[in-house]
Amino acid sequence: MEGRALSMSAADPPEAPPTPRQQLLAGARSTMPFLASAIPMGIAGGVLGLSSGLSEFATLGLAMAVNSGTAQFVGFALIADGASWPAIILTTLILGLRMLLYSTILIPYVKEVPQRWRIVLGFGLIDEVFFVAIDRLRNGRLTHHKHLFFLGASGLLYVTWMTCTVIGMSLGSAVPDVEKLGLDFPVIAMFVAMLAIGLTNWRVAAAIGSAGVTVMLAQGLPYNLGVVLAAIVGAVVGAGCELATRRNQPKASEQKENVA
């Protein structure tokens, strides 16, 4: 009987890969926990955009273009401080340098994804999407229709963020001094949660640690330039750690082959 059971289990067909629709929905479900933070953050973005002097069209346009809560909030602060537009644009671009680190880490896992999809998904590669995707990629749980998983994960957050930005603009117009209610606190809560996850990876931890030290040392710089400098330092350190790891992997493989 035991032999028969073993032969039957051995004959069981392998689990079917997820369909494109299933992978799209899986991506959306993976980022649903972040909605608890994205919803109030999006509302806060709409409120702070109007309070910093932007029009409703400009507030929504900035949110749609940068697709980054960090860059958006820093941009609002620079606008409120009267910074020039070139400085604001340069700052938001520099704050996106951490995406260079994310892209460097993801490249080995998405080589089979068509180039046209990589361009589209690159726009949606935000912190939350990276953290939910890299865990699945490294554990071998994301092997089919990877681009649809990324699309589902980033699409849900993007639509939610824009919708809540519109809601925030409506609140900002209807409720006086709503920006003083502390709606930007979820920004801190979300990044604390992601940092806790990221610290399990020594490369991400090195980038986070170097950026944290830099921002504390440079907190006296005007126009939040300490944040910009910290983003640059963190991206450089993280990319350096990733490159060092890749260079050491072939050496480790050669040593194992020699031992064998």
From TrEMBL:
Gene Ontology BP annotations: L-valine transmembrane transport
Gene Ontology CC annotation, any one: plasma membrane
Entry's localization field: Cell membrane
Domain of life: Bacteria
Keyword Cell cycle assigned: no
Lipid bilayer topology: Multi-pass membrane protein
UniProt main location, coarse: membrane
Transmembrane regions: 31-51, 57-80, 87-110, 147-169, 181-199, 227-245
Region (Disordered): 1-21
Family according to the record: Belongs to the AzlC family.
UniProt-recorded name of the protein: Branched-chain amino acid ABC transporter permease
